[in-house]
Amino acid sequence: MPDARPPRTPPARGRWRLLVAATLAVALCTGYLSATLGHRLDHGSSWWHGADAESRTEGPRTELRFAFNPGRQITFGASIRNPGPSPVTITGIAVDDGPADQHVFKVARLAANPAVDDSTAVVFYPATAAPFGSIRVGAGMELPVFVTITIPDVEQAPGAGLFFDDLAVDYDVLGLPRHQRVPMGFRLLVHSASGYVPR
Fold first, then answer.
1. Which of 109, 142, 153, 157 could make an SS bond with 148 (beta carbons 3.0 to 4.6 A apart)?
2. CA–CA distance, 140 with 101 (Å, rounded to integer)
3. pLDDT at position 75
4. In angstroms, how far is the first alpha carbon of the chain from the final one?
5. DSSP secondary structure letters along the chain
6. Residues 94 and 182 in one domain
7. Total domain count for the chain?
8. Do residues 106 and 33 both lie within one domain?
9. Are residues 27 and 123 in the same domain?
């Protein structure tokens, strides 16, 4: 004999629990996306250059100046700071984040002096820098990196130059890959005093 009773509806308590669980899931997802997408890296407290460059500070701007010499490689150091609140893993660093065949400066080498303890001091030691690989940077910590670039063989007017003031950084935060142009805290200028015409 068929059951003539009407179908049972879930009790109010079950619906309430389902609503609370759904609300918590949405809040957790929103918090996760806010924490990861809102996480920004910044320039660190220090930078480095060898004897082949000079630095100038005028007002709030510091400039690191190299002489223009096509095909020559130059190396500078910059520190990348993770202000927190979560640790990040830096997976890649470039001077330009456009298509590779359109990069003005080609990165020849990357190296780093990762911290050996929880010290927040930034140390630039070119002789002991290791080739760059994925490196974890804790909250409030800085990563000093050495970037070697090749000066392009391009025409320059007298007194002109090529410059940039940030790095294109790939990193993971809470498992989510991110990409950001991170300021270096200075402007790097490759200056051509007398101009240059490619042969």
1. 109
2. 35
3. 96
4. 99
5. ----SPPPPPPHHHHHHHHHHHHHHHHHHHHHHHHHHT---EEEEEEEE-TTEEEEEETTEEEEEEE--TT-EEEEEEEEE--SSS-EEEEEEES--S-GGG-SSEEEEEEE---SSS-------GGGPEEP--EEE-TT-EEEEEEEEE-----B-TTEEEEEEEEEEEEEETTEEEEEEEEEEEEEEEEESS-B---
6. yes
7. 2
8. no
9. no
pTM recorded for the entire structure: 0.79
* Residues written for the chain: 199
Give dist(CA 95, CA 152) in Å, integer: 13
Query: Are residue 24 and residue 77 in the same domain, yes or no?
Result: no
Tell me if 197 is assigned to some domain: no
Task: For residue 129, give its domain range.
Answer: 41-192
Residue linked to tokens 């997976």: 91
pLDDT in tens, 105-136: 889 999 998 766 655 578 898 888 999 999 99
Are residues 35 and 73 part of one domain? no
* The residue to which tokens 């970037």 are assigned: 147
